[in-house]
Amino acid sequence: MPKKTPDELLALAAETARNAYAPYSKFHVGSALETEDGTVFSGCNVENASYGLTICGERNAIFQMIASGQKKIAQIAVVAGGDTPPYPCGACRQVINEFADPDCPVYVAPTNHIDRYETMTLSELLPKSFKL
C-alpha cells in the first residue's frame, strides 16, 4: 500500500530532475517511485553524446529499485521541463510494465507546475501491453 502522496512523489521527482545531465536536449527529467513496502527511489535522465547510451529518468529510478533488491512499483511520478506533462517514452512504459500492475498510478507534471499533475493507470498509459 503506497504511503507517499502524489504531491510528495512529484516534489521528489522535481528535485531529482535538477540533477539531470542533459547538455544535448536541455530536457531535464526526474522520476520518483514507491514500492509496495513504502521504499522510495528516484532517478534523472543522463544523456550521452552517443544518444543510444542515454538513460531516461524513469528507467534510472527503476534500475536503482532493482539493484536494491525490490521488484514491485506501487506508484511512479515523472516530472520534466516545459508546459505539458512529460509522458514516459515507449521504452520506459515497457520497463514500468515489467515491474508494475496494470492499475499502478502514474503521475506526470511539468517541473514548474507539479500542482497541475495528471494521473493515469499504467494500463491507460500502455494499453494492450506486452507481457510474457
Structure write-up:
There is one protein chain. The chain has 132 residues and is of the alpha+beta class. The chain has a single domain (6-125), classed as Cytidine Deaminase, domain 2 (3-Layer(aba) Sandwich). 28% of the residues lie in helices and 23% in strands. The chain contains 4 helices and 5 strands, in the order αββαβαββα. The chain has helices spanning 6-17, 57-67, 90-99, 122-125; strands at residues 29-35, 40-44, 73-80, 105-110, 118-121. Strands 2-1-3-4-5 form a 5-stranded mixed beta sheet. The two termini are 25 Å apart. The model has no long low-confidence stretch (mean pLDDT 96).
CATH architecture: 3-Layer(aba) Sandwich
- Low-confidence stretches are none
With strands numbered from the N-terminus, the spatial order across the biggest sheet is: 2-1-3-4-5
Number of strands: 5
Give the count of structural domains.
1
Structural class: alpha+beta
User: How many strands, what sense, and barrel or not for the largest sheet?
Assistant: 5 strands, mixed
Gyration radius, in Å: 13 Å
Task: Describe the global form.
Answer: globular
CATH C-level name = Alpha Beta
CATH fold field value: Cytidine Deaminase, domain 2
- Can you write the helix and strand succession as a string? HEEHEHEEH
The fourth-level CATH homologous superfamily is Cytidine Deaminase, domain 2
